[in-house]
Amino acid sequence: MRPQLTQKATQVLVQALVISRLDYCNSLLAGLAACAIRPLQLIQNAAARLVFNLPKCSHTTPLLRSLHWLPITARIHFKTMVLAYHAANGSGSSYIQDMVKPYTPARALRSASTKRLAAPSLRRGPKFPSEKTRGFAILAPKWWNELPIDIRTADSLHTF
User: Fold this and answer.
1) Is 3 left (phi over 0), alpha (psi -120 to 50) or beta?
2) Do residues 134 and 32 make contact, with C-beta atoms less than 8 angstroms apart?
3) pTM of the model
């Protein structure tokens, strides 16, 4: 069917049928090992080759860039940060807001105005160490605090 479709029509179909499935709840995949993410990246690479009607051996980085598709790990990171933005600004779901708390220093410090999130303690939690370090409540504050201050203090999601 691909030879009968234009590149734009193929792109729309691939985004609707494949990329939307890769993006669905992908923030749950945050912190997984690269070997678990790799099959999803291979699917995205195949989808990009399909859009451009290129053979399997074609390099995909320029294809992904021209389609404006982030690699899977970057998509996961981005979606997690969007959820953290909503939680930090009070516009997210209540259960997401309960997972992340704003950082409030014990005394007056300059860091009080940097819109940081408090990192939760890892002492209590699941029995398995991998579950402790890859949950949203752990990774979101860690990644959020690594963002530059001008991004953390953005006025709108569009600016963020």
Assistant:
1) alpha
2) yes
3) 0.81
